[in-house]
Amino acid sequence: MDVTLGKAEGIDIRVRAPPSKSYTHRALIAAALADGTSTLEQPLDATDTAITAEGLIRLGIRIDREANRLLVTGSGGVLNCAEGTELRMGDSGTSFRLLTSVALLCETPVILTGSARMRERPVEGLVAALNGIGGRIRYLGADGFPPLLIEGELTGGNVCVESRVSSQFASSILLAAPCARSAVELQVPPGAVSRSYLDVTTDVMASFGVPVERRGYERFRVLPAPYRARTYRIEGDYSSASYFFAMAAVCGGKATVENLVPASVQGDRALLDALAEMGCRISASGDAVTIESDGRLDGIERDMSASPDVVQTLCMVAAHAQSPSRFTGISHLQYKESDRIRAILEVIRALGGNAAREQDAIVISPAPLHGGVIAAGNDHRTAMSAAVLGLAVGGVTISGAECVSKSFPEFWKILHEVGLA
């Protein structure tokens, strides 16, 4: 599907943020391991979260949908997996990583596999850590990469998990840790990326009755204890909201996004601070956050290691700024659904912008922009972030735009409803 965007100026939109993808994944797993039936209200219905739900079903969990909620019948931490169980994770790295540890709770071997791109995304840090606390996980292809044959058990103990590629390695172990035979003491070495997602993980765990002892982002301790079933509402997603905030920044005008928790632990909420530094005005009322801009933006320098999913969005805003910007802490973006560092450079350059990579940084300088064609490359965040710059410039066509179904299926429909597409 191709989407062509015209130039937008002085916008005034009010939209509702979709449910959080990160919270939906984690709540599904906590509910699946709980000691009764949980009701997940307003879960995200997207390709990635459907893959996690289907994976849990294949691991023996019952999940029923009723209107805008999911009823998850928990296993009490004991999974009855059929012989020959294979989980096909497609392009969902979150599903693959989080369910790797969960699969160790099965008494029979489980195979985890995925798309061609998934087989290029490293998982060695997670596998090595799990094999240190009872796992006997083997690579079925290239060492360090999916697919995996998962055997063994989650015995517990002390373990160090390398997290310079993804914090999901640590989140995976934490989510399964309450079901281990003994306490899990998890150490995360310096240099971990996307650390704010560990806050999301521990927040969900606490909500389902499992507190996590922690010292910052370096050490975590989880005692064996069953998750407690409950009714749980999924909060709105700041990653998805970021595109509308960015549109107001580059086009000028106002964007209000509802269904957000102003004090959320989601790391991508930091985009608001970045936009304020660039010259935008931010306000909040109830569950709504509003950004206003006159379209004149200053470049900034910022470490983005804790907010990976809004790097592309912020880079598109920076391409419209009047002075240079420099964003560090981005090297792990090359291991996402696509090489997002390359995608950022290609999108900005295709529209006449000036962007360059400097080791672990991207530098974006002012340049005259023009229309063009952007290939989404089967990456939802490339497509949606390109829409931001497309609306600022006009005459921009995004091909392969249907890939937004991975996290935000209603994205183009909402843009159409508010008159921007």
- Contiguous uncertain segments of 5+ residues: none
Number of domains: 2
What's the Cα radius of gyration?
21 Å
Tally of individual helices = 12
How would you describe this structure to a colleague?
The protein is α/β, with parallel strands linked by helices and about 425 residues long. It folds into 2 domains: about 1-20 and about 235-415, Enolpyruvate transferase domain (UDP-n-acetylglucosamine1-carboxyvinyl-transferase, Chain); about 20-235, Alpha-beta prism (UDP-n-acetylglucosamine1-carboxyvinyl-transferase, Chain). It has 12 helices and 23 strands. Helix 1 (about 20-30) runs parallel beside helix 6 (about 195-205), helix 5 packs parallel to helix 6 (about 195-205) and helix 7 (about 240-250) runs parallel beside helix 11. The longest helix is centred in the middle third of the chain and has 14 residues, at about 240-250. The mean pLDDT is about 95.
What are its keywords?
single chain, 421 residues, alpha/beta, UDP-n-acetylglucosamine1-carboxyvinyl-transferase, Chain, 2 domains, four-stranded mixed β-sheet, 23 strands, globular
Could you write a compact summary of the structure shown?
This protein is an alpha/beta fold and 421 residues long.
Would you spell out the secondary-structure blueprint of this structure?
Blueprint: E1 2-5, E2 11-16, H1 21-32, E3 37-41, H2 47-58, E4 62-66, E5 69-73, E6 85-88, H3 93-103, E7 110-113, H4 124-131, E8 138-139, E9 148-150, E10 157-160, H5 168-176, E11 184-187, H6 196-207, E12 213-215, E13 219-222, E14 231-233, H7 238-251, E15 253-258, H8 270-278, E16 281-285, E17 288-293, E18 301-303, H9 311-318, E19 325-328, H10 340-350, E20 354-358, E21 361-365, E22 372-375, H11 380-393, E23 396-399, H12 411-417
Parallel strand pairs: 2-15, 3-14, 6-7, 10-11, 18-19, 22-23
Antiparallel strand pairs: 1-23, 3-5, 4-5, 7-9, 8-9, 11-13, 12-13, 15-17, 16-17, 19-21, 20-21
